Amino acid sequence: MAIEFERDLEQDKLPQAEIQKRTTRSRERIISAPVVIVLSVDMSDMDIYPDEKRNKAEYLMAVQSVANAGMQMLLAAHAEGLGGVWVCSPLFVQETIQNILELPKSWEPQAMFFLGYPQDIPEVRERKSLTDVFIRM
Fold first, then answer.
1. Which domains does the chain have, with CATH numbers?
2. Over the stretch 16-25, which tens digit does the pLDDT of each residue have?
3. Cα separation of 67 and 91, whole Å?
């Protein structure tokens, strides 16, 4: 992943120091996480239609379902006292992740979650009242 990330950043014409900083940070986040979970889309059991419009909608439903599952997983982790970070970097290196993790080719990596116990637990912020955030039309 780091090799491909570095290649992409070089194509973006970033300075070498910035490329090194970003790839090092990315690598450290993955390596230091106690648990890394990769969420993937698998279209094998989804409906296939004769037109592109409905096939695209079916794919979007699958992606939305994965995202919803990921959010539910983060909420469940939080309820258990865990901290979590969601990153979408697998979207840029799907084939690499499939190969490294020996995933079926039908599994398209979408997101990666780093889970663990947080070092610091931030204070809960006071919520704004509904009338402060509600916009009447």
1. 1-32 (no CATH), 34-118 (3.40.109.10)
2. 999 999 999 9
3. 13
Q: How many CB atoms lie within 10 A of CB 39?
A: 19
- Amino acid making up residue 66: V
Residues 38-81: tens digit of each pLDDT: 999 999 999 999 999 999 999 999 999 999 999 999 999 999 99
| Amino acid code (one letter) for 77 | A
Q: What is the dihedral of CA 25, 26, 27, 30, to 10 degrees?
A: 120
H-assigned helices in the chain: 2-11, 16-32, 52-79, 94-100, 130-133
